[in-house]
């Protein structure tokens, strides 16, 4: 186990600490300490994921709660250092810019964002679950994304930012130097899901980029991004 945190409880064990973290009932300093621990301690991160699988089914009948201040602060600490540049033709061929402006989010942060899904069926044998934190330094748009191959969908939790009047956010998948593939227009709800086709599902992999562009209502009229890219992040295994 990693070096003890000053705000980590002295009793109850890491299993109880992980459960309280997932429930969001810890005091603010301990909630932040648990988030840091999940980033650095794989054993603790596994406990968090196990509690997520146990507790998330209990939330199915409830509306999502407002994002706790401690989680907002933890997400803010993971903001990105390089400024966002305006979208330009073939921007997806310069992924270094976007990877410089995005960081590796943790499974713990995704847990606390509370994407409301039921207990998962057995995972797909060929594809792992993946997550991404989508943001950019010069934009207030922030999303967490979870790819669930066993359900052929991408779950999305909006942390902040909304499109203006007459505009929509559209989610794109970019693999290497390939042209972006649209995953769909983002619904207006704070938590939502986008279904993926079998063809698109086969393209989703760790290291691929998810990006959100600002488009006219209904999405891009061309099948490729036409507006500014307001958030992006790499897909990572969990």
Write a compact overview of the structure shown.
Helix content is 27%, strand content 23%.
Description of the molecule:
One of its GO terms (cellular component) is plasma membrane. InterPro entries: Anti-sigma-K/W_factor, RskA_C. This is Anti-sigma-K factor RskA. The chain is an alpha+beta fold and 238 residues long. It has seven helices and nine strands, in the order ααααααββββββαβββ. The protein has helices at residues 13-23, 28-40, 42-55, 69-77, 95-100, 107-113, 198-201, and strands at 130-134, 142-148, 153-160, 167-174, 181-185, 191-195, 209-216, 229-234, 236-237. A five-stranded antiparallel sheet has the order 6-3-2-1-9, covered by helices on one side. Strands 5-4-7-8 form a four-stranded antiparallel sheet. The longest helix has 14 residues, at 42-55. The protein starts with 12 loop residues before the first helix and ends with a strand. 36% of the residues are buried.
Shape: globular
Tally of DSSP helical segments: 7
Biggest sheet overview:
5 strands, antiparallel
Label the structural class. Answer: alpha+beta
Q: Would you report the number of β strands?
A: 9
- Could you spell the SSE succession in H and E letters? HHHHHHEEEEEEHEEE
Keywords, separated by commas or semicolons:
238 residues; five-stranded antiparallel sheet; disordered N terminus; RskA_C; 7 helices; sigma factor antagonist activity; Immunoglobulin-like; 2 domains; globular; alpha+beta; Anti-sigma-K factor RskA; four-stranded antiparallel sheet; Anti-sigma-K/W_factor; 23% strand
Strand and helix map with partners:
Layout: H1 13-23, H2 28-40, H3 42-55, H4 69-77, H5 95-100, H6 107-113, E1 130-134, E2 142-148, E3 153-160, E4 167-174, E5 181-185, E6 191-195, H7 198-201, E7 209-216, E8 229-234, E9 236-237
Antiparallel strand pairs: 1-2, 1-9, 2-3, 3-6, 4-5, 4-7, 7-8
Helix pairs in contact: 1-3, 2-3, 2-4
């Amino acid at each position: 186990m990693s070096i003890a945190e000053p705000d980590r409880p002295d009793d109850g064990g890491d299993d109880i600490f992980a459960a309280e973290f997932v429930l969001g009932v810890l005091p603010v300093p301990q909630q932040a300490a648990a988030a840091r621990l999940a980033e650095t301690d794989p054993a603790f991160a596994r406990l968090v994921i196990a509690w997520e699988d146990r507790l998330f089914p209990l939330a199915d009948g409830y509306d999502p709660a407002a994002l706790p201040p401690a989680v907002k602060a933890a997400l803010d600490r993971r903001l990105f250092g390089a400024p966002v540049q305006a979208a330009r033709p073939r921007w997806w061929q310069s992924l270094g810019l976007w990877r410089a402006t995005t960081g590796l989010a943790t499974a713990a942060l995704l847990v606390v964002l509370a994407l409301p899904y039921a207990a998962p069926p057995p995972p797909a044998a060929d594809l792992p679950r993946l997550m991404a934190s989508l943001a950019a330094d010069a934009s207030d748009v922030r999303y967490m994304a979870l790819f669930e191959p066993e359900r052929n969908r991408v779950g999305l939790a909006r942390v902040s930012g909304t499109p203006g009047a007459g505009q929509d956010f559209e989610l794109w998948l970019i693999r290497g130097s390939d042209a972006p593939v649209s995953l769909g227009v983002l619904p207006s709800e704070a938590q939502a899901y986008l279904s993926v086709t079998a063809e698109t599902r086969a393209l989703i992999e760790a290291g691929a980029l998810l990006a959100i562009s600002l488009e006219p209502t209904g999405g891009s009229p061309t099948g490729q991004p036409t507006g500014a890219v307001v958030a992006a992040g790499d897909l990572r295994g969990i």
